[in-house]
Design brief:
Blueprint (H helix, E strand, L loop, with lengths): L1 H4 L4 H12 L9 E5 L6 E6 L7 H12 L5 E7 L13 H12 L5 E6 L4 H9 L8 E7 H7 L8 H11 L1 E5 L6 H8 L11 E3 L13 H10 L9 H10 L6 E2 L5 E2 L1 H15 L6 H11 L4 H12 L2 H7 L6
Parallel strand pairs: 2-3, 2-5, 3-4, 5-6, 6-7
Antiparallel strand pairs: 1-4, 8-9
Length: about 325
C-alpha cells in the first residue's frame, strides 16, 4: 500500500504538470530534459506517446544500447503528437511519471519532453537543447514509422524537410509486422527515397521479439478487458496502472453515474496542483479520492465540489481519519 500511495502525492504530479505546461505547441521547437540519459557521443531517441509505456517500447530503447550502437537513449514524449490529437488513457504528467520511474534505476536511459510531433521539428528541438552537434542523434523507430516519415502528406515541401531532418539526425529501424531488413532495403531503393538511404540503418532484433505487443491500441484494449499478458508491460507501468485504475472502464452506479477511478484521481491531483504548494500529503489525497468513489450522498457531493474546483470544500468534506 505504501508503494501505491505515492501515486497520490501531489508534488511530483505538479512538477510533471508544470513541465508539460511550460512547452507551447505553437512556439519554436523546444525540448526539456526530465531525466538525463547519461554520457556519451551517440544518443538514441525513442519518440512515442507511451500511453502506456510497454515492453515493446523498452525493448526498442534498450536494444541499441545492448548492441553498443548508442551510448544513451532518451524516451521522447511530445505534448502534441501527430495523428493523436485527442489521446485517451494516461495524462501527460502520468506518462512522464512512469517513464521517469522506469529510467531512474537504469543506466543510460533518460526522458525528454518536446512541444512538437514531427520528426524534423523534434530533431531541431533536440539539437537546440540536450543533443548538441558534437553528439550523434539516432532516432529509434519501427518499420511503420519510417514509412510515415517518408510520407509526403506530412510536409509542405517533402524534399526540403527530409534534407533538413537527415542533416540533423539518423535512423535505426526495427522490424515490425513481419517487415524485415530486406523490406527496408526495398523501401529505401525506391527512387523518391534513395537519396536518403545512407542515413537509415536496420536495427536487428531477435525474431521472437519482432512484435511483442507493439500496438499501443492493442495494449489499451487488453487492459480495458483485463486480459493483458503480464510481460507486455514493464513493472513500473503495471504497478501504476494496477494502483490507479487507469484504462479500466468506469463503474456505473445504481443511478447510472459513471465513476472513473483514474479520471477522478487526475482531476483531483490537477486541482491540487493548480493551487500550488503547500500540498496536502498523499494519504490525505488518497482518502479524498476514495471518498469521491463512494456511491453515497457524500460521494456525490464530493464529485460536485471537484467539478466546481472547490478544493477547500473537498478537504473539509473528507477530513483526515474519515472516509
Amino acid at each position: 500500500m505504501a508503494e501505491a500511495l505515492r501515486y497520490w502525492d501531489p508534488a511530483p504530479y505538479a512538477d510533471f504538470r508544470r513541465l508539460v505546461q511550460s512547452l507551447d505547441p505553437a512556439a519554436a521547437p523546444a525540448a526539456v530534459v526530465v531525466h538525463p540519459d547519461g554520457e556519451g557521443g551517440r544518443v538514441g531517441v525513442l519518440p512515442g506517446s507511451f500511453n502506456p509505456l510497454s515492453s515493446a517500447h523498452t525493448l526498442l530503447a534498450e536494444a541499441p544500447l545492448g548492441l553498443g550502437l548508442v551510448d544513451g537513449v532518451f524516451f521522447l514524449l511530445a505534448v502534441r503528437t501527430v495523428d493523436k490529437e485527442q489521446p485517451e488513457g494516461l495524462s501527460l504528467p502520468d506518462r512522464l511519471w512512469i517513464l521517469t520511474d522506469y529510467c531512474r534505476p537504469r543506466s543510460g536511459l533518460g526522458v525528454v519532453l518536446t512541444n512538437r510531433g514531427l520528426y524534423v521539428e523534434e530533431a531541431e528541438a533536440l539539437r537546440a537543447g540536450p543533443v548538441p552537434p558534437e553528439r550523434e542523434l539516432w532516432f529509434l523507430v519501427g518499420f511503420d514509422k519510417i514509412v510515415q516519415i517518408f510520407d509526403p502528406r506530412y510536409y509542405a515541401d517533402r524534399e526540403a524537410a527530409l534534407r533538413r531532418l537527415f542533416a540533423l539526425s539518423r535512423f535505426y529501424v526495427a522490424p515490425r509486422s513481419g517487415r524485415t531488413e530486406a523490406d527496408l532495403a526495398e523501401f529505401l531503393s525506391r527512387p523518391e527515397n534513395r537519396p536518403f538511404a545512407p542515413y537509415v540503418r536496420y536495427l536487428p532484433l531477435p525474431p521472437e521479439r519482432h512484435d511483442p505487443y507493439l500496438s499501443a491500441t492493442a495494449v489499451r484494449q487488453a487492459l480495458a478487458a483485463g486480459a493483458l499478458p503480464a510481460e507486455a508491460l514493464p513493472a513500473e507501468a503495471r504497478r501504476f496502472i494496477e494502483a490507479t485504475g487507469a484504462f479500466r472502464p468506469p463503474r456505473l452506479t445504481a443511478e447510472g453515474e459513471a465513476l472513473d477511478a483514474y479520471g477522478l484521481r487526475v482531476g483531483l491531483l490537477g486541482l491540487i496542483a493548480a493551487g500550488g504548494p503547500p500540498y496536502p500529503p498523499a494519504g490525505t489525497v488518497f482518502r479524498v479520492w476514495a471518498g469521491l468513489l463512494a456511491e453515497d450522498e457524500r460521494g456525490r457531493r464530493g464529485r460536485e465540489l471537484l467539478r466546481a474546483g472547490d478544493l477547500a470544500g473537498l478537504l473539509g468534506l473528507f477530513p483526515d481519519g474519515q472516509q
